[in-house]
Write a structure and sequence with these properties.
16 helices, globular, binds adenosine monophosphate, binds magnesium ion, 6-stranded antiparallel beta sheet, alpha+beta
């Protein structure tokens, strides 16, 4: 079988845990622990991403070979792989949670592509590590399908994300209490191989900082900058300042992209924030259907809804504040950290204005457009309108004869549509006036809107349909969804189902509107 070239720089550059045995513990003064995946009974490749496989040099023969399922199910290693789990902490729901670490993720190594770029391969659900705390290190099929599909969907939407090479069924059961009601059930187990240039999180820097280990903090920062931010030049504090500003900028752009497509991460703890500004750790995420900034799919967060859709920008800012605090030992004076945080606000505002222009089909965003977008959001919320369908259909509205007609199929409730008709008509007529004042010719406007307003997003109930079929042994649903989500901005004939309004059965169903962290 083909094996990429591995160069495990993280292991080489950073201190490892001297304890070779695999038991749960506090790991001080080290960034990683060596730990092998725990073999599974019957690894079977259930799905893969052809783009990620190709990038890593895996051909059809490799994918079909039992050796591939063995490696990506955790039963074998390729030459050059050196499995390890990394050490990080994090603020969970606003509170410092101390050491967390890769409790069920095991990195296999850093593949070096022909052009020199790196791809870390990481198994999620490959068994216990020193960081597993009370849990089993495993993952169930349903959540693995969700992570596999969504990370690929996100990539094709053009949003920075970790990728997924493979989804492997383990042939073993995993005990989970989905509703946290004391009635656990045995579910099918699976392992996703995630792929990213780096899986470093804010929490990797927070843990040594909170422990007062400035030496390890500096080593991690220096390593991360050198490996993952090669475009940054400079030295000393100025370099750290540029790096932090870059992290702030990327995080702002990432969250603005989520807001553009209606993605709700669901658990924006600092341990789930990538230092590269990637979407990472797909758990109880969801997609906005009826527009609602207060919505969260995460039932674990139902009380405070800290991670609701509309709060994601401010939560990201709060998380960057925690990162700034962690990095402060690297700075004699905190001003550069304040400047970095200010960069977040600027970059977010810029990205959000860009989103407004693109979603509305305008060459540029003026202040009155920001206000009109805000009014539109209020209307969408008040009248239960599907965000994705509405914006996609907005391109159909004729600037010379604006009407609600092309938008009607975005409404969930005919009574709410009727109640909002006058307000929408008023909004549309003002929108039409603005369009007539905009220089874009109609075809260019259409293309601009279609490239910002996806036709297809990974609606929770679509993922759930694929999961239900997979549980019945049919992976066709996963295959088809992956295919549909490869071209989210293109209209795909015969695939109206995948662009449909949330069906009534999905309104309050577990796995659709309600997801827990039990995965
Ligand atoms: P999450 O909420 O998924 O971001 O996970 C938070 C922490 O819990 C991380 O340190 C995970 O590695 C750990 N964790 C989550 N699920 C498991 C599991 N099944 N086994 C071991 N550790 C887990
Ligand atoms: Mg996590």
């Amino acid at each position: 079988m083909h094996a990429p070239v591995f160069d495990n720089a993280f292991l080489r550059a950073l201190p490892g845990d001297p304890e070779p045995r695999n038991f749960v513990r506090q790991v001080e003064g080290a960034a990683w622990s060596a730990v092998a995946p725990t073999p599974v009974a019957a690894p079977r490749l259930l799905a893969h991403s052809r783009e990620v496989a190709a990038e890593l040099g895996f051909g059809e023969d490799d994918l079909a070979s039992p050796a591939f399922a063995a490696v990506f199910g955790g039963n074998a290693l390729l030459p050059g792989m050196q499995p390890y789990a990394t050490n990080y902490g994090g603020h969970q729901f606003g509170h410092w949670a101390r050491q967390l670490g890769d409790g069920r993720a095991i990195s296999l190594g850093e593949a070096v592509l022909a052009d020199g770029r790196r791809r870390e391969l990481q198994l999620k659900g490959a068994g216990p590590t020193p960081y597993s705390r009370g849990a089993d290190g495993r993952a169930v099929l349903r959540s693995s399908i969700r992570e596999f599909l969504c990370s690929e969907a996100m990539h094709h939407l053009g949003i920075p994300t970790t990728r997924a090479l493979s989804l492997v069924g383990t042939g073993e059961g995993v005990l989970r209490d989905v509703l946290y009601d004391g009635r656990p059930e045995l579910e099918s187990g699976a392992i996703v191989c995630r792929v990213a240039p780096s899986f470093l999180r804010f929490g990797h820097f927070e843990l040594p900082a909170m422990r007062g280990d400035a030496g390890l903090l500096r080593q991690l920062a220096d390593f991360c900058i050198a490996r993952d931010f090669p475009s940054l030049a400079g030295q000393g504090e100025a370099l750290y300042a540029d790096w932090f500003a870059e992290v702030c900028t990327r995080t702002a752009r990432l969250v603005a992209a989520w807001m553009r497509v209606g993605f709700v991460h669901g658990v924006l703890n600092t341990d789930n924030m990538s230092i590269l500004g990637l979407t990472i750790d797909y758990g109880p995420y969801g997609w906005i259907e009826p527009y609602d900034p207060d919505w969260t799919p995460n039932t674990t967060d139902a009380a405070g809804r800290r991670y609701r859709f509309g709060w994601q920008p401010r939560v990201a800012y709060w998380n960057l504040g925690q990162l700034a605090r962690a990095l402060s030992p690297l700075f004699a004076d905190p001003a550069p950290l304040q400047d970095g945080l200010a960069r977040f606000a600027e970059a977010y505002t810029d990205a959000d204005r860009d989103t407004t222009a693109r979603k509305l089909g305008l060459a540029e965003c003026r202040d009155d457009d920001v206000a009109r977008m805000r009014e539109l959001h209020a209307l969408l919320q008040a009248h239960e309108v599907d965000m994705t369908r509405f914006f996609r259909a907005l391109a159909e509205v004729d600037a010379d004869a604006p009407s609600l007609q092309p938008l009607e199929s975005a409404f969930y409730d005919p009574a709410k549509r009727a109640a909002g008709a006058a307000a929408f008509a008023d909004w549309l007529s003002r929108h039409a006036v603005r369009l007539r004042d905009d220089p874009l010719p109609a075809p260019a406007r259409r293309a601009r809107m279609d490239a910002a307003n996806p036709r297809y997003v990974l609606r929770n109930w679509l993922a759930q349909e694929a999961i239900d079929r997979a549980h019945a042994g049919d992976l066709g649903g996963v295959e088809t969804l992956l295919e549909v989500m490869r071209r989210p901005y293109e209209d795909q004939p015969g695939r109206a189902h995948y662009a449909g309004l949330r069906p009534e059965w999905a309104r309050d169903k577990v796995g659709c509107s309600m997801l827990s962290c039990s995965s």
